[in-house]
Structure formats: structure tokens, C-alpha cells
Specification:
With about 525 residues, the chain is an alpha+beta fold. It is built from 15 helices and 21 strands. The protein is globular and about 75 Å long.
């Protein structure tokens, strides 16, 4: 399946993603391979749209970008913050974050990475002229200091609880990136474990191991991300042995068949990917809360997760999964109640007309991903049972995602991956986070939510934050800017000889730098 940036990694949570994107990552070590060895091949469903980390928001751009660009800090498979470019860091009074950089790091062109590159990366995102979609997350920064070549200090205007998770964005080289984002995006140069060797949006993205990587060169000399939009083709290529790994990018009903294949092995774990139905709250029909409530009660999530996802997805009540420390179960329950949906539509002024005519018509945008279309077709049928006619419009990923970011939709389905910090509620639902300042693509506005998410950002006590986000979750569930659908499991299928694989909850690609094959 496929997702979007959204969200993103860490508190950025901007990895909007195609609908239900499932991604993958690997870990391990192995002796170096000869340059002539074949690449390690991974199938993906669509091409990344952007390699500059200052602009990347879709899942494949974020995940592949993590292999090209190093970050100050990153998350490990357990979701803990660990050093990447930083050797260590110090926090004073909740407003002064000082990072001491590793001194042996070089960009792919051989130039050393210094504190000035870190400062430039974040200051450029704060510059309105750059129009970075991540700008809103860094407005808390009052100034950035570089006391020496390998020390960088962020001074915040006030305490900001999710700030560390905001610092998991790739660092770009000032001497190249300052020449313009268009030029840099087409020829990205980072300090990560891989270089970009080839980018063909109609075929594949190929990476080559960077021999000067500060943690040592990857045992995998070449990574090839084959872009295969069709589920059936990806499945066949995996069974024929032409792929080394796929994660979540196959029809769930194919899992028993894959498990029975003696040449393959499978890993499975709960994930944090959240799928939802988005509403355009400026639409004259969908701005009516009763209509959105009726739609939410019309969707049989249990039927979809059991029969289409084969229980590899679980009905969701909100963005955060039940395992999350800030999750609150005290929200409105929108279990399947079609009769209640019909009454709500009557009350909203859309009585069921006599004959085959619907109460009203809506368009539902989705990607051309086959599983996404299957799900949307079921939702279309379920809404028709309460008198709502839905026209499905599917597009290739780039066109679809551009429409969503620009607000050109009535209904759409997408997923957020990489949800770690509950500050995602600010990015997604604060009234000031409408694009390009954030991911409030449905134009939701609530003074109460604005106040709560702003207060939660400044609260350094975890229990206070949890209480504030419980209130946010309650209000969001009542206002329904999204209709929550489900959280999906992560399932990775690989050849038997693949070793060192690490399954990340958010589907990171990062440990592909360490994967190896035993023969």
C-alpha cells in the first residue's frame, strides 16, 4: 500500500504519503562487495517527488532522502533520539539547544560539513522566499549561533517540547544549496551513506554507496528502487526473484501465497501509519458537520480491514495509535451505523429523494494505486447505501498529491507515516498551518484547538502534554476534519538470503545502508 509526509519522520510528521504507503528499512553488516555485483533491489509504488529535504513531504521522498542526507539526530527502531551528525547535545532551560558535531563528516563532493551548513539549512527554511513547507515548524527559533566550526546552538523564543524531533531533517551543503533550490534538487549532494546515481521517474532511483561516509561505507554498493505502480507486477517480480525486498507494497490477500514460497521470508509488526478520509471544509456540502458525521457513520471499517486488509489493519479513532504515550480513548465512536447516518443527512437538509436519485454527489480523489482504488470503491459503495453518490477520480501520484496540497478536492484518502510526537496535531489542524505553512489541507479552524496545541508545544511536562492532547483528540473527533480509518501493520517480504533487516514502526529506509545478502 502507499502513503504521504504524510509524515513525516519525528515531530515533523510530514510524510503525507500516497494512500497506505508501506515502506521498509534494513539493518546488519557484511563484507564489502565487488563493484560489479548486482544492486540490492527494492520495489516502490511511485517515484519520489523531491530530494531536497527542505521541501520533501511525501513518504518516498523522505525515506530515500534519509539515505542521501545525514541529520543532526535521528530515531532508532524503538523511536528514541540518537546522534547522527551530532556527537552529543545539551539542553538548557528548555530554550538553548547546543549540538557538538562530528568532525570527520564530509559531503559527497568532499567538502567538510560544518556548523555553518547546519545553520544555513535551518535559516533557509525559515526564509519565506524559499517557501519550504516545513517553515512553520521552525518559527520557534529566535536565532542560530555557531561559536566554532563544529558547534551549533539554537536559541528558542520560548520552550518547545517537540523541538528535538524537529531536528531530524537532512542537512544540505551551503556552498551548493545557496545556488538555488531547483538546481540543488536535480543534483542533490548530502553527507549520507549513499549518493544519487540515477533518477528516472518512469523507471527507477539508483543510489551508490558513498565511500567517505563517516560511519564507514555501506556493504551494499548499489541500491535500486524500482518504480512499479502495478500490484500484480510487483508481486510477480518478487516471486520470480527479481526483487530483494518489498514492504507493504503488495495486496494483503497475497500474504498467504508469499508465506508459502520457500525462497522468501516475512517479518511483520504493528506500525504507526494512519489512514484517513480528508474533507474540504470550504466545500458547501462538506462544511456541514452533520454531513461529515453521516459519512463517518457510513464507513464499515471492520469490513474493510478484515476483507481487504486481511486483518493487517486495525480501525483507528484518531492519528495516534493505542500504543502511543499520548493516545486517548475518550473520543467519539464512529462505528458503522448506516441508519444513524441517514437520519443525520435528513436533519442536514438532504432528504432521500424518491427513486434512484442520490441526496447529493461528491468527488473522491485517490492515487492510481490498485489497493487504494479497491478501498475507495468499497467506501463508494458504502456511501451509496445512505444516498450519497461518489465519483472516484484517480491520478498518478504527483498530480494527485499536488491537488491535495492545493486544496483542489472534496474528499481524498491519504495516510500519515512516521507519527512520533503528538505535535503533528499542530501541523495538521492549527488554523495557521494551511499550505504552504503546514498540512492543514482541509482548512480546519478551531480557536480551542489552536490554543491547546500551542500550549502543548510549550509544556515540558509529559503528563501535562498528555492531558492537553487528550482534549485536542476529543475536539477533533467531534469536529471531524478527518474521518479516521485505520492503522496498518508493517509487513516486509524478502529473499531468504537477506540478513540484517530491521523493521521500523514508521517504515524508515534508513537501515538499507546495512543490509546484506548471505550469497
Amino acid at each position: 500500500m502507499r502513503v504521504s509526509t504524510h509524515h513525516s519522520v519525528g515531530a515533523r510528521n510530514t510524510v503525507p504519503l500516497l494512500f497506505f504507503i508501506w515502506i521498509f528499512s534494513l539493518g546488519g553488516c557484511a563484507p564489502s562487495k565487488a563493484p560489479g555485483d548486482p544492486p540490492f533491489v527494492v520495489a516502490i509504488e511511485s517515484a519520489p517527488t523531491q530530494f531536497d529535504p527542505r521541501f520533501a513531504t511525501d513518504a518516498y521522498s523522505e525515506r530515500i532522502g534519509q539515505l542521501l542526507f545525514s541529520r543532526l539526530i535521528r530515531t532508532d527502531p524503538a523511536g528514541r533520539m540518537i546522534p547522527d551528525l551530532a556527537e552529543r547535545w545539551e539542553v538548557e532551560e528548555g530554550t538553548r539547544y547546543t549540538f557538538y558535531l562530528k568532525k570527520q563528516v564530509r559531503f559527497h563532493d568532499g567538502r567538510p560539513l560544518t556548523a555553518e551548513d547546519v545553520r544555513y539549512t535551518y535559516e533557509s527554511m525559515l526564509d519565506p522566499a524559499l517557501a519550504s513547507p516545513h517553515r512553520k515548524g521552525y518559527e520557534i527559533i529566535d536565532r542560530i549561533e555557531t561559536p566554532d566550526l563544529f558547534t551549533v546552538r539554537f536559541i528558542l523564543s520560548k520552550p518547545h517540547a517537540p523541538f528535538l524531533t524537529e531536528l531530524t531533517r537532512g542537512i544540505v551543503p551551503k556552498h551548493l544549496a545557496q545556488n538555488g533550490p531547483a538546481s540543488f534538487s536535480s543534483h542533490p549532494v548530502g553527507s549520507g551513506p549513499f549518493n544519487l546515481a540515477r533518477n528516472d521517474p518512469d523507471d527507477a532511483v539508483e543510489l551508490s554507496a558513498y565511500p567517505g561516509y563517516f560511519e564507514g561505507p555501506s556493504p551494499t554498493r548499489r541500491l535500486l528502487f524500482r518504480i512499479i505502480p502495478e500490484d500484480a507486477v510487483r508481486l510477480l517480480e518478487m516471486e520470480k526473484g527479481n526483487l530483494d525486498l518489498i514492504q507493504n507494497a503488495f495486496p494483503p490477500d497475497a500474504l498467504p501465497r508469499l508465506k508459502a514460497n520457500p525462497r522468501l521470508k516475512i517479518m511483520q509488526a504493528t506500525g504507526s501509519t494512519y489512514s484517513y478520509l480528508g474533507f474540504n471544509l470550504k466545500d458547501p456540502i462538506l462544511r456541514d458537520r452533520q454531513v461529515r458525521e453521516a459519512i463517518a457513520f457510513s464507513i464499515n471499517r471492520e469490513e474493510i480491514t478484515e476483507h481487504i486488509f486481511k486483518k493487517l489493519a486495525h480501525p483507528a479513532t484518531g492519528l495516534l495509535p493505542p500504543s502511543h504515550w499520548a493516545y486517548s480513548p475518550a473520543v467519539t465512536d464512529y462505528s458503522y451505523q448506516p441508519d444513524r447516518a441517514r437520519r443525520l443527512l435528513d436533519e442536514a437538509g438532504y432528504p432521500d429523494p424518491e427513486g434512484p436519485a442520490p441526496r447529493f454527489r461528491l468527488t473522491h480523489k485517490t492515487s492510481q494505486n490498485e489497493l487504494a482504488r479497491r478501498v475507495v470503491e468499497v467506501i463508494q459503495r458504502q456511501l451509496s447505501l445512505v444516498g450519497i453518490a461518489v465519483e472516484i477520480r484517480s491520478y498518478e501520484w504527483g498530480t494527485f498529491y499536488a491537488d491535495i496540497k492545493s486544496g483542489n478536492f472534496q474528499l481524498f484518502t491519504l495516510s500519515w507515516v512516521g507519527i512520533q510526537d503528538p505535535d503533528i496535531y499542530y501541523n495538521v489542524f492549527h488554523s495557521g498551518s494551511v499550505p504552504p505553512n503546514g498540512s492543514n489541507r482541509g482548512f480546519y479552524a478551531s480557536a480551542a484547538v489552536d490554543r491547546l496545541v500551542e500550549e502543548a508545544r510549550s509544556a515540558l511536562d509529559a503528563e501535562k502534554r498528555k492531558a492537553l492532547y487528550a482534549e485536542v483528540q476529543k475536539i477533533i473527533s467531534e469536529d471531524l476534519p478527518y474521518a479516521s480509518l485505520w492503522h496498518t501493520d508493517n509487513v516486509a517480504v524478502m529473499k531468504k538470503e537477506v540478513e540484517g533487516y530491521t523493521l521500523y514502526p514508521d517504515g524508515d529506509f534508513y537501515s538499507l545502508k546495512e543490509v546484506r545478502k548471505t550469497n
